[in-house]
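# step 3/5: fold
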Amino acid sequence: MNILITNDDGIGAKGIGHLIRTARKFGQVYVVAPKTQQSAVSQGITIHEPLQIDNEDGLFEGVTACYSISGKPADCIKVALEYLRFDIDLVLSGVNDGPNLGTDILYSGTVAAASEAAVFNIPAIAFSTDFDHFELVDKELEKTLDYILDQDLAKKGIIVNVNFPLINYSKSKGIKITKQGRRIFNAKFRHEEGKYWQEGTWAYVKNGHDSDVTAVSQGYISISPLAIDRTNQEIFESWTKKDHPIW
């Protein structure tokens, strides 16, 4: 199996090393990752400026090829598939330093890289953990990836979104299959030297027992199936049943 690894924290981030070391046990590893921090860029691509693409052979042990690019996570997928022409069977994104739960996924570059892979009909998995909580990742990343592959959860056109438990758990209680919950970021703006910095915290939102937000807060590894089709199917069907005028 040929595995492409990327992230949004940058090629020098801690999480990508964890993912590379684990992925080597499952197949041939290719790396294309951003040169710099690209968190919260969503699925943006670089079209109004040139991309710098640099060979990074020797940066990681045991990888078939390694490149850094000046662009975003979605650019990494495009460069790997459409420029470097890697023949990829599976895309792994992460491990992100910070959760990607609920509505976080709308902003997440980690999930966006997996979403871009889904556009190309390649199975993709996004991995995230609580901030600087890589001790648990060390213990449980391999068996989590093995579970996903063994259970055939990673399919073409689907994004498998994995979140490890919150930092107050040193080990997980197991795996839960979940759906996307709600997690709202309340922004605050700090003024400094004529510029405004966006900061804030996550507001409390009551989530169902089967949500990703609830699972990680209870000590479980959350695995959620996501799709790139954002059509509200229920509303679509209700609209098409009505006799709306056609222009």
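# step 4/5: annotate
Residues 85 and 93 are 18 Å apart (CA to CA).
# step 5/5: archive (pending)
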